[in-house]
């Protein structure tokens, strides 16, 4: 059983989005996945369509000993994906555990107890993957998740301020590995909300890859509005927009994790990666598509366009052609209307100049002819 904590001490860098959609992608690939909501805001719980209910068993109940790990799990709309939900009560868990003996290992012990019981009953691990959605801090809840996990997946927004805290976060993980969890290791760094059109994003990604060589995943989660819209409908990206770039990116991250299963002997024999895996359509989506199809007007009937007929062969005889010759038009007698207008002569211009009240000089005989021959315009 692979136990992966998805962590970053900065908020809004894609931890919850990655936990929900990566868990769904692994479940669609035939893995048994459990996602654990360790944030009092219960964003992961809401993103998977489960309403936080303080009266039901949750991650808070598991931490304070009021419930068992397996009893608190709820099914989601994705087959093979189960959720350990959270609610607002989780915000007080740190104070309640402050004086508890072994408070850093409460979640690890509850998970081990559930796994041992399932292994005794079925002969195999209770799940293939456990994903922990850690809160945006390095408090007791995050430490419990890191103590229960064996791997760490760091989500990182490709911006300057997110880059600043990376070195400190890696130091904290190394300190926890030294003092609390010797098997803890960094599986990779996942860049999220990456926009290749921005020069800053490209520069930050280049800096991360040069500083943390070999630890940055070859996949980046591109900026995609569908990833932000899906939680408002209580769906993963595979149920909300399976053809979006966000769905493709998280399926590629799942493919990266599946490629690492060769290191685990107990995970041999699991189904191979299926690039055609898709989430089943939910009842409301089926109803919406059926209603849209019923409202759609029928397509217009297409009528066959008559083909142009081929020209027939000319079968007329020379005698017939002679009869069909057009009659010549009669010549029209010249009339005053058909005669071209005559240009006024120079003597006429002189008469006009003489009759004018202006003192105009007499034009020479060929002046009007010269003026008439000039082209129009400037």
Note the beta-strand portion.
5-15%
| Number of contiguous helices | 17
Cα distance, first to last residue?
94 Å
Structural class: alpha/beta
**CATH level 4 superfamily:** P-loop containing nucleotide triphosphate hydrolases
Name of the level-1 CATH class: Alpha Beta
SSE series: EHEHHHEEHHEHEHHEHHHHHHHH
Total number of beta strands: 7
Q: Helix share of residues?
A: 25-40%
Strand order of the largest sheet: 3-4-2-5-1-6-7
Please give the domain count. 1
| Radius of gyration, CA atoms, in whole angstroms | 42 Å
Mean pLDDT: 83
CATH topology descriptor: Rossmann fold
CATH architecture identity: 3-Layer(aba) Sandwich
Large-scale geometry: elongated
Largest sheet: 7 strands, mixed
Spans of at least 5 consecutive residues with low confidence:
none
Q: What does this protein structure show overall?
A:
By secondary structure, this protein is an alpha/beta fold. The chain has a single domain (2-266), classed as Rossmann fold (3-Layer(aba) Sandwich), CATH 3.40.50. 40% of the residues lie in helices and 10% in strands. The chain has a seven-stranded mixed β-sheet, with helices on both faces. Helix 1 crosses helix 13. The mean pLDDT is 83.
Helix/strand layout:
Blueprint: E1 2-7, H1 15-28, E2 33-37, H2 43-47, H3 59-63, H4 69-72, E3 74-75, E4 81-84, H5 93-97, H6 106-122, E5 129-133, H7 140-148, E6 151-157, H8 160-164, H9 166-179, E7 185-192, H10 199-211, H11 225-229, H12 237-240, H13 245-259, H14 283-295, H15 318-323, H16 346-355, H17 367-373
Parallel strand pairs: 1-5, 1-6, 2-4, 2-5, 6-7
Antiparallel strand pairs: 3-4
